[in-house]
């Protein structure tokens, strides 16, 4: 079976792509590397650039990317909605593979090539978007955890102020209001999580 793998290393503003092909005889070739803007225009250019480099038939074409924060999501959805096969790798999987190659220096160009190489050498699962309800729950819980950290930080500050010498009462008052605000927002998010779960019995 012949494969064409497009490795994608994605950052906030742009992403690097590296195309590798493997023919039935096992020969592996790098077809090209390029940087694109992490925008809808860049996504369209990536697909056009890839199609221009497919000069021979391939049984399987796969875009492979690393789950870098939220920066990969728009491109993943774009490719999926345009009927392309995608695989999304956890960062630790890419890291372990890189270590197995004894690569010490880490650059964006190397990363895109390594991600493509993983697709050549490993059998990867194709990615599908999570249902909107799961995505909503994930976003709500992520924000709740963030607010919880802020609340703990404010409580630690208040504790330090209460044990300090001549702390401003105004500052103490503001910090207490911050804690109350965080607590209220956390409660709102928890209620929203409950509402999403109740309206979707399969999530319970």
From TrEMBL:
Molecular function in Gene Ontology: DNA binding; transposase activity
GO terms for biological process, alphabetical: DNA transposition
Coiled coil: 137-199
All residue ranges annotated as the Transposase IS110-like N-terminal domain in the record: 6-161
Segments traversing the membrane: none
Sorted UniProt keywords: Coiled coil
Domain of life: Bacteria
Protein name per UniProt: IS110 family transposase
